[in-house]
């Protein structure tokens, strides 16, 4: 049976790009590891944030559309994206959220204390302590490695058909069902990060794509051959899968599961240092070869952005 290690990345739609950079780099302390464009809509940024090494399981990516319509979080989407921090770091994050006037709720889920809050544009986020996952050695402002976000804890999925989504996670993606409580079913993959998936056990109203919503969730494939094996495996399970698409930093295939959530399976290699040095990743706009001749025009059309130390 095939098994994914867990989440590769999560991609969301947000508003003004500088507000996005300020929140994820300046407040949450993630590294902006890549600034490029949406290959299908080159007048829009595609911004990537993660740990110092831009490791799979730490990467959140954004299509920032300033002044666009606000979306509605609902069935067919990732409802909440969860981040994991080292044991003992939660008080730091409580203080940090308060410092930046970010309202949060402290809740108990499956025996864990979780901080639940929204980003600048309405995305639902959580921070939870766990031992799993390597320490993130990136430092910005007051966010130091002993408290820094290590990567994804996981995600909560809102499904139009929760039973079918749960079956897919278990029987096709190879996650293990580990618990069920308070209206959620918890699954776990074998990886040490991005490995805990909660499915809301009941459906509600359909989500509407727009600012403040997740566009898709991507799962990890070890390499190109593993991805082709996944493609065949998912197709045999009754899902229509796209051809392989070259995203420069990984290859991708997509399918919409029966609960209407868009799934991607992305390769771990080649990674984000393929077109710029590891030490300077994210510092300048990187374009795929087919758009390089339009660089000057694109740079004029995109909002200027910078990573700012907000402390």
From TrEMBL:
Coiled coil: none
Pfam families listed in its UniProt record: Glyoxalase
Domain (VOC) ranges: 6-130, 151-268
Record Gene3D superfamilies: 2,3-Dihydroxybiphenyl 1,2-Dioxygenase, domain 1
CDD domains: PcpA_C_like, PcpA_N_like
The name this protein goes by in its record: Glyoxalase family protein
């Amino acid at each position: 049976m095939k098994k994914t290690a867990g989440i590769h990345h999560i991609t969301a739609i947000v508003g003004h790009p500088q507000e996005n950079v300020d929140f994820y780099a300046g407040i949450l302390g993630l590294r902006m590891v890549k600034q490029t464009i949406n290959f299908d809509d080159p007048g829009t940024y595609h911004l990537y944030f993660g740990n110092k090494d831009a490791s799979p399981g730490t990467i959140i990516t954004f299509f920032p559309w300033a002044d666009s319509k606000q979306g509605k979080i609902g069935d067919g989407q990732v409802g909440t994206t969860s981040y994991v921090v080292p044991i003992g770091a939660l008080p730091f994050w409580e203080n940090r959220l308060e410092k930046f006037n970010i309202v949060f709720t402290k809740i108990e889920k499956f025996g864990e204390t979780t901080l639940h809050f929204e980003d600048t544009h309405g995305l639902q986020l959580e921070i939870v302590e766990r031992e799993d996952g390597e320490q993130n050695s990136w430092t910005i402002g007051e966010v130091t490695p002993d408290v820094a976000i290590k990567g994804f804890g996981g995600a909560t999925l809102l499904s139009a058909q929760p039973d079918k989504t749960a079956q897919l996670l278990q029987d096709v993606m190879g996650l293990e069902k580990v618990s069920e409580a308070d209206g959620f079913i918890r699954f776990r993959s074998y990886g040490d990060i991005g490995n805990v998936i909660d499915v809301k056990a009941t459906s509600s109203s359909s989500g509407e794509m727009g600012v403040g919503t997740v566009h898709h969730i991507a799962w990890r494939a070890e390499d190109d051959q593993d991805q082709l094996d996944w493609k065949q495996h998912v197709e045999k399970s009754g899902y229509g899968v796209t051809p392989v698409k070259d995203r420069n930093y990984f290859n991708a295939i997509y399918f919409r599961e029966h609960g209407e959530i868009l799934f991607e399976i992305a390769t771990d290699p080649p990674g984000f240092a393929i077109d710029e040095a590891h030490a300077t990743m994210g510092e300048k706009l990187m374009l795929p070869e087919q758009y390089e001749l339009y660089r000057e025009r694109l740079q004029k059309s995109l909002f200027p952005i910078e990573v700012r130390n907000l402390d």
